[in-house]
Amino acid sequence: MASEVPPYRPKDAVGLAIKSTLITGGAGIFLSAIQNSLTRSNVNAWGVFTRTGGTIAVFAAMGGTYEFSRTASANLREKDDSWNPTIGGFLGGAVLGLRFRTIPAVLGYGAGLAVLLGTFDYTGGVLTGYTRDPEVDEFERKEQLRKNRRRPISETVAELGEGRGIYGPGYEERRRERLKARYGVDVAVTGPTQS
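Given the sequence above, the corresponding structure tokens read:
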């Protein structure tokens, strides 16, 4: 048997949509309060709901529509794959496009959000990159990477030359000979400096 897919377990689309509506509505209240505080005219505290309250409604409707359609499509298709966020993203973006009251805006915002969310889910759904093996110690992993990419000192000296903290073997003797030949100065042998 190749890889067996576990059976799909249906999710509560309405309950998740209500949670998502409340969360994104809270984000909408936050942004509406910022919009209200940045207005030039003197608006009272209720301006969050009366003057810039459309932001709250759009955010809440987008979040609820996205979550409901994503979960409902997963339940109907009985699959949990990247098409569900794509479908939810299209309908959520279409809700944002309704604010502009044109069909191109509805289709454009829907397609844009569908591509963005579908791609995000398809590529793993994280912004921090791929997940590393939790069994491997991070320090040991980085040491292995350093050893894997380490270049020999002879190659480094050949490319960059000596100086600036890069000194090949026998550097002190060669330096002493150069100073003796060029300036006639005999430099005493010193041990490694301790810092």
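Helices lie at 13-37, 47-50, 53-77, 83-98, 103-122, 138-149, 153-160, 171-183. Try to locate this feature in the token string yourself.
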